[in-house]
Amino acid sequence: MGNPRLAIARRELGSLRKEKTIVLALAIQLFVAAFSSFLVVGLVSLYDPSAASYQVDVAVTGGEEAVNDLIVAIDGESGLAARPYPSADTAMTAFEERQVDAVVEASTGPNGRVQLVAIAPDSGVETTAVVVRLRDALRTLERNERAERSAFLSTNPLPVPPATESSPYFGFTYTVLVPLLLFLPVFIAGSLVVDSLTEEVARGTLELLRVAPVSFSAVVDGKLLAAGGLAPIQAVAWMALLQLNGTGIDNLTWLFGMVTGLTAVVVTLGATVSITAPDRRIAQLLYSLGVLLVFAGTSLLPLSPANSAARLALGTAGLSARLAVAGLVVVGLVSLVGLRVVVGRVDPNELG
Amino acid sequence: MSDHDSVRDDSTAADSPSSRFEGLRTRVVAHLRAVARIARWEVSRSAGTVDRKTIALGLVAALVAAGIAAGAVGSGVAIDQNLYRVGIASDSPYYDAVDQSSVLEPRPLSDPNVELVVSETHISVADTQTGRAAYQAYREAVQSYNERQMRLEANQSAAFPVVVTLQYRERGALVPAGSRVDGGNGGSAVSGDGSGTADGGDGSGADAGDGTGSAGSGTGVDSSDAAAADDTNIGASSLGGAAGLFGGDASGSPASISPPFPFASLVLAFAFLVPMNFVIQAYGSSILNERVNRRGELLLVAPISPGDIVAGKTLPYLAGMVGITVVIAAAIGGGPVSVAAVIPIGLLFLSSTFVGAMFARSFKELTFVTVTVSVFLTTYTFVPAIFTNVTPIALISPLTLVVRDLGGDAVSLGDFAFSVGPILLAAIVLFLLGTGVYREEDMFTQRSVPLKFLDALDSRISRPRSIATLSALSIPFVFIAELLAIAVLFVLPVDVTVPLVLVAVAVVEELAKSMHIYAAFEKARFARTIRVSLLLGALSGLGFFLGEKFTAIVQLVGLPSLTLGQAAFAPSGIGLATAAGLLVAPLVLHAVTASVTALGARRGKSTYALALVGAIGIHVVYNMQVVTNLG
């Protein structure tokens, strides 16, 4: 009959397949992941400050000297254009009539400082786009003004290299989206283990073990195998999807190893919690808290899984991130072995 | 649910008005007692499953998690630490800037595995996206390093020669250039005709307003500059807020300006919806527990109606949700409007979890159902709220109301009803459906989810008239599905979205009109004759038509002013007072297409599917006709 563990794992997977809602749930997850990445990368790069397609017109008004400096700074920024207006009133009217996207009123303040009042529209994403560009222009102005006053400074600021085009959400993709997609299946795998074990307890089916030629630890092993095996496959599938989407993913093998190690830790947690507190409500709550603990705890380490995953996927990871993956796999193995010892001492009929 | 049952029951009450009222009162009190008893039992039983060991374990876990979270915030561990490697000599003037940046990792010049090399004379960048991102990070690192150096300067007015005060102003609806005399700060603008969708083409329209064009004689605006037409202004954007939420007016050096986070609604969605996920986990377990090993049987045979049982079991979880929502709303500064807007979402969470737990065969299936529910509802509430200040479509998400409430804007009753109404109705209908299968033959059997769904629909059908009622009750779901389709397709160009929306609308509406007919035929509720099919089809069409009139509230928020809104809702005859004859057309359409599917459903699954495709085809053609004729 072969290995009972494999038989149990097959049975678990079979029940997952039979309940077709899982396909639906996976499809919806796919939809959400695709949609959110489209939303973040697509929609936001629509308003990318360096994209020339969206031009921000800035009405400039106020004292003549300050205005001239301001115009130089604003026109030097790509995607920004300055329009001088004779008075603040006319500038505001133009703003209301949507002929300009922002208004900057300049005057000379105490100590010869340049005083600016900037007015930006209050309308969500557009506001962000306008303010981001305006800030860049004003920082240029600040640099120019600072250079004129360099005689009064003890240290001179370092020359800032010229700006180039780069997606501001490039980092976001790797530091948030990639870890999210890698670790979400891991979380679900542990949750599956909790469900599977608490259900056996709730239905009283573990009592059958007394007459069955299978040990409790074989049952637990089979369940861990089924649930835990799915997570790395899903994670790799997500990464392949990102590849298709044009986001390069490096070090796929290392990422796979990392997810596998983490899955081992998390399914162990799930199994431990369900053996300790076999009521599903309590078990799920404790499990969620425990996972939170694992992820929050590891995020404090200098080589947190999220950070290592980002660097590995980006291809900028050194030896240290790879050592972290190896360490994670070792921790996973140790926790699995520990679980076996614990499970070996538990009488399944005492649960619940 | 108890009041629904009592309302239904009172048709059989005694004759005289006073005794009838008395009877009603006793029944209501009895129902309330039963609900309260079950709620108490649910609470005490849940408390009973928790022993001291688990409480201690949970507390320790929560405390450690909180401690770690506080530690993470305090020590500022960055998720993007050492993301890019920079080759730089340790005596370079830029070394400190690179070293102090958490994103950059300084490496010796000899290291070949770097994204960026900073030598004395030049900077070389790997020609990849990563390289460019690394360069951008390097540039920012140098800027913030300069900033820190300048803060140490004695002469602060020379170090920070520019002081900026940033203000956010709302702009009123788009008004033609020159029609405005005062230079005030918006809000009081002429309400406009609203239909200003993205037709303000940029290139060609740029120099139109110069002389005689639509821009009349301006009020002293520099006419040579006034020409440039602003691009894409969609509808009225009198909704306020997101900028005030996280940005706010600020003053300081240019570097201290922080642009507002554009996805405020995301933060809100997480703040309100994450705790809900914990609650529905427990709630779903509790419902499914009743179904495991026929545990709920004793309760079923007790002299309590299923409605009371469901209400009683739901009440503690609803109370918990309301409590959490109030606390979160208070924490982020929201008022009663925020709470009132979020609670219907909570109800929808509970009701769909309830239906899921009634349908699911195992805990695992329940987990996936729960994940699906929370993912779908989170998308539904979060995505539209992004466009809070852009378009009225955002109002389909109650989170928009929260964003506006936080921004200090008033929320009109019409807006509130539009936003919350469909969700509330959908929650009630879901509870009704689930309560319909809260009976022995469905609770303790292992049937697949679609079969259970048909059972749930069938349990609400007793006579042909019920078909019309069910069609009308499907309206909130139709409404939610169509609005979600619009919200999702909103980002695409109008030429593409209008046909897509028309097809989506046809699919959703035809399904809503025919699924219960199919269920009734499958359960042999009616004779499978042509005459009965036509009758059921006509009734379904009528019920749907009447229910659809409910969508008249769409007008309250002016959604039809959006081209997409018109595409979706004009075919239903809303807002066509000028063409009264067209009012009959949708009724005929619904009756005809529903009859087509009913004829198909009579024969079985495959003919039903075929007939459904046909009906959708007819519906799409009709929609196209209406939209092109009106457009």
UniProtKB/TrEMBL annotation, chain A:
GO MF annotation, one: ABC-type transporter activity
Membrane-related topology note: Multi-pass membrane protein
Sequence intervals crossing the membrane: 21-47, 169-194, 224-242, 254-273, 285-303, 323-343
The keyword Transmembrane appears for this protein: yes
Stretches assigned to the ABC-2 type transporter transmembrane domain: 29-300
Entry keyword annotation includes Transit peptide: no
InterPro entries tied to this protein: ABC2_TM (IPR013525)
Subcellular location: Membrane
Keywords: Membrane, Transmembrane, Transmembrane helix
Gene Ontology CC terms: membrane
Principal place of residence: membrane
Highest taxon of source: Archaea
Descriptive protein name: Sodium ABC transporter permease
Originating species: Haloferax profundi
Organismal lineage: Archaea, Methanobacteriati, Methanobacteriota, Stenosarchaea group, Halobacteria
